[in-house]
Write a structure and sequence with these properties.
Strand content: under 5%
Order of helices and strands: HHHH
Keywords: Membrane, Transmembrane, Transmembrane helix
Radius of gyration: 24 Å
InterPro entries: DUF6341 (IPR045922)
Pfam families: DUF6341 (PF19868)
Number of strands: 0
Shape: elongated
Protein name: Uracil phosphoribosyltransferase
Number of helices: 4
Length: 76
């Protein structure tokens, strides 16, 4: 049983954490490059938020938005 858990430990430390170890070493010399993944996620989230707000404005301008408090059954 111990060999099984040591195998899992070896897998994570020597194989699956290679990208994280690379980013950890890169952070000491290039902070911006080490955080590239974070910047990408922030850009994606910001673009989806802008899209969502534009869609909300479109529905509001067309008058298709039902703002009645009884629009949903759980609000009755």
């Amino acid at each position: 049983m111990r060999a099984f858990f040591e195998g899992i430990q070896w897998l994570f430390e020597n194989v699956l954490f290679i990208p994280q170890n690379f980013l950890r070493k890169l952070e000491l010399s290039h902070w911006f490059l080490a955080n590239t993944i974070n910047w990408i996620f922030m850009i994606i989230c910001a673009s989806f938020m802008v899209y969502w707000i534009k869609q909300l404005r479109l529905f509001d301008q067309k008058g298709e938005e039902n703002q009645d408090t009884t629009a949903h059954s759980f609000l009755k």
